[in-house]
Amino acid sequence: MERRWSRDCTPGHLIECLHDIATRLALEHERQAAALRTLQEENEKLKEAGVASNDLSHTLRTLEGSSPVLRGADSPKLNRAATMTSALSSTWSSALRTAGIATTEARDTNPPDAEAEEEVLEEIDVDQLRPLRTARTSSDLALQSRHSKSNFVAEEKVQFMIMRAEKSKRFGSKKPGYVINPDSFAAITWQIVTSCCMGFVALVTPVQVGLLDMRFDAIFFFSLCVDLVFLIDMILQFFTMYPKSTARGVEWEHRCDHICAHYLRTWFALDFVTIIPFDILSLAFGTDNFKELKSIKVVRALRLLKLMRMLKSSRLLHKLEIALSIPYQHFALIRFLFGLVLVCHWLSCFWAMCLHLVNDDIPKWIDDIAASDARFGIETSPIRVYIASFYFCSYTMTSVGYGDLGPQNILERIVCTIIVLVAGLCWAQILGEVCAISSDMNAETSAFRKKMNSLNMMMQEQGLPHDLRRRLRSFFLQNRHQAQYVVRQKLLDNMSPQLQSEVCTEMNLPWIQKVTFFSQFMAQIEIAESRGIDTDPYRVCIADTSRQLRCGAFAQRESFDNIQVLYILSKGLVVLNSKVGTNGTVWGEDFVLSDTSLIRPVGGFALTYIEVLFLTRESFMQVIERRRLTCPQLGRSLGQEGQVCARCLLWG
Prior knowledge:
The protein is an alpha+beta fold and 652 residues long. The protein has 29 helices and 10 strands. Strand 6 (574-576) and strand 7 form a beta hairpin.
């Protein structure tokens, strides 16, 4: 056998065989090492568990008597594996010396006959060998290694799965049920209720403090209901999430202890002061000692700060901005007008409150008006006092200053000074904002006037002919709304790619459908959609094409031609090779041809001022190349269109 093997094999074959044998031996060595480590770990576990050696010996004797696998000659499978492993072990040293192969190189090489060895090992009943703990042969070690390794991996997978499940359950951020989400429908409804109550506080509470006496009436009970709403709102704030800035961005804080601490640091003091029922305290004591506490009720007006905070940062206003198309200039003007009236209302109530803060024998600013009304038998009432106070504050705020009303005592002079300062600051702020808003509303008109002034100066400096000047002015006047296109392009640049595609498609799709092969491609998309095929890649191609469309304009009586450019007329009249075209006329559909000699020349002449949408071949080919893998149908449609154009040109 050895002599025939030596005669038939060349030295190269010998080296390859030895290389394979060395590789197998290296793998077997690794398996045995792993088996030994596994056995050592299991023995340590058995020692720790206090398993007696007698029990283990008894188990082994029982297995030797009952299992046919351990009877030597009666287990051919085990003998076969042991014989194979022993033969491989005996040739280990000679193979390495002859082939000169390092063990590390053998480990990195995949043996070609490893599958045969695995088949042999799989034939052995591994489950019967699992209880063995004292096996010493290489075959037993290899078998136990394979079985222990598979069990170990399976157990590790199970443990890993359990660990992941426990980690998700333990560390997952879940909002407790009693914590309120400000984005929920119930929270938004409650915000609307509190906003109405804040409106009541802003308008009615200053009137109660400055003009009305304390008595049980409808306004009094409604004020108590508002206080109850604010009390409930203060309690709910301890359980309402608030936005916080983190490394991952803005997130909602749902931990109750953090919510309480944040609320106590910010708005709790103000909310607590504004719900103190000074009216009930005054009526309960039944004396005038608490009459001075009416002036403290003006603190309730500080609820307006929270109203302004809600307008700036509440999610309700953000949802309204998303749902409604708000003209911001008009909205800002209305807001500042309302702010002007509201500040004047507060100052009027504050000015009227001075009448209750001084004794009756001291002169007051209302004395002249009361004396004038007394001659006609008219009694002074809260409504007449409020009108006079509002009249005084309005002309003081607008810097008119008629001077027919003025302070009559030291307290009124102090209050009047405060009113003048506050009114001046508010008026300056509102006036500046209104002027800025007005200039923003006329920004396009101002920019066009500057452009026309620059054009006139340029034409005058260059000494252009009168006819050319007239044509230039006519072009710029007719092209005035092109500034909207520039603004539109800037807005598109600020959008995300997906929104850019959708907006461009909605704006340009009616014009794209005028082109023949685009309309055919859209028909293919509709057919594919009716069959249940995903058409998103196709619509992306249309969106990319619509984004490549550009807007251009030509003056009246201007001639032009096309070289690999697709034109779509959007405004005006044009003559194309002695044919008149109107809105929606398309020419240059053969722009897809790479050979310019095959393109049919089209001469254009603008009968009026015209505007066109154009698409160059270069930009369109970029779209096709970019979507070549996801949407090859567009390229095929384009090739068919090119063939049709070429045949039409060749056949006349």
